[in-house]
User: Fold this.
Amino acid sequence: PNLEHPAYPAAALLRLESLVPCRESQVSMLLSIFGERQQFSFPSIFIYGHTSSGKTYVMQNLLKTLQLPHVFVNCVEYFTSQLLLEEILVQLQSCSSKPEQASHVRCNTSNDFVRLFKQAVVSQELQDQTVYIVLDRAEQLREMEANILPAFLRLQELTDRNVTVILLSEIVWELFRPSTGCFEPLTLYFPDYSIGHLQKILSQNHPPEYSADFYAAYINILLGVFYNVCRDLKELQHLAVLNFSKYCEPVVSGEANERDTRKLWKNIEPHLKKAMQTVYLREISSSQWERLQDDDGDPGQLKGLSAHTHVELPYYSKFLLIAAYLASYNPVRTDKRFFLKHHGKIRKTNFMKKHEKTSNHLLGPKPFPLDRLLAILYSIVDNRVAPTANIFTQITSLVTLQLLSVVGHNDQLDVPRYKCTVSLDFIRAIAR
Assistant:
């Protein structure tokens, strides 16, 4: 066994090791920081790493398997300081070996929380062991009152109790630290899983009707295709479950055996290429994807379900986006021809003919000034639009949504220039 600690039974450590593969060094480090049950641990620990690096999963299994008294709160669910503090107190009431009916406690301030926390520790008979408070998605604490984060970091000192606060986040500690300074937590980094780690973890989920070697070969093929574009363990688990039935088809039909990797690869390759188009996007549900595979269809058939064509925008934002697209891809000299009813005669010179052979879609979007955008908007909207603050706010919203991008320097407030960043298919869907 890789995990050894004199304070905890060997059977529990062995079970924990089987639950958290490829994270033995991080768990071993945490156990050495925690120490024995009755010992004071470090006041606050900050654990960070990219998404799907096992932070939440490891902490949950570590605290549950070793039966350590703990509170686990997701800061996205409890998004105000009052909700967060009250939830910690409610969970704390059910930590002891004889849990009573948890009753709701009102807690508005940090002072109230310190007083009620002391009472809860005594009533639950937890004075002789460390209580762990785990705050998942801890970056949300920065949106709350300024005193919440510093209070949690030195909760052990404020309450004079044996308590450790563990913050889990995807961002680094430097983005947390208040400008006024605060107690520095002990930082611990969870690195991304390597391709070998992903192979080992994903291979553990093999179906009982197939051999472990057969499923490991499938996972090896899957990672060979997706590892360069996707390191997310949850996404890879989803893809592995979704495409395994297609991989097994030649074996089920008797056309190949489990060791005939060449035939199996030729069968699964086109389906993995299709799946590559929808990595992370979830444009269609799993059942629809399986139905498409059975019909040998193309995911493009389900464009009506695409998240890209279903972006809901306010009425004038749609027209603004269409105007921005026209301004980005049409030359300035064509505005009079397209948007004026009585534009007069326009002579096509040799220069124009020569350059209009190249599609502007191949050349990419060109920047345009704000006044040109508004001029095109007024010409394509049926009714009269007043240039109110509402219109300018919607332009800012389109920039925030990254449908438009600002070009040039931020100090050019009088003539801001923009560029349209969406595709022709997107604009066609909006225009429809």
